[in-house]
Amino acid sequence: MQKDLMLDNVNLLAIDHWILEEEMTLEQVGEVVPTIFYVINPDLTIRYINSLGYQWLNLESEKSMHKSISIINYYHPDTLHVAKSQMHQFYNLQNAFDIQYDLQKVWYEQDSEYKLSLITTKFSRNLDGLLSTVTPLEELPHLKNRIGGAVMSKS
Q1: Per the database entry, which stretches of residues form a coiled coil (predicted)?
Q2: How many Å apart are CA 48 and CA 26, to the nearest integer?
């Protein structure tokens, strides 16, 4: 996996492959993905979220995930209906090869503001859920450095 952890190879297809074919756990993959990464259920509640996601949602620990947290609670109210509809539609298609890209304003609890973010989503048959990443547009130029840091820490 380390050799695959390069800017143009870190995508949801690779992540789904790592979980399915290389028999890695969500936790193992989630900790090397250099952005917010989560899996959502058909009802759009979060099943798994990585440590960057915990910071994003301002959660203290995995204990706080025992309650159902809906991802749509973090979308801007003006576009919530569109995003919710798109996610349900994308889940219902259950096409494991398509990736949906969207720009949405999402709430960042730690900064107390909505930030325009790139959201990528893919259906995973193996997990029967949607794999998603969220990256604020302001952080995209720094993503390559974070990927390089993840490669170095796993070597």
Answers
A1: none
A2: 8
Q: Please, how many CA atoms are within 13 Å of residue 54, restricted to the half-sphere of its CB?
A: 13
- Give the tens place of pLDDT for each residue, 53-106: 988 888 776 655 656 889 989 999 999 999 999 999 999 999 988 999 999 999
**pTM of this prediction?**
0.80
Q: What is the dihedral of CA 101, 58, 147, 18, to 10 degrees?
A: -70
What whole-number percentage of the chain has pLDDT above 70?
A: 80
Beta strands in 17-141 (DSSP E): 36-40, 46-49, 99-108, 113-124, 129-136
**What is the C-alpha to C-alpha distance for residues 134 and 145, in angstroms, rounded to an integer?**
17
**Nearest Cα to Cα of residue 38 among 124, 111, 139, 141:** 124
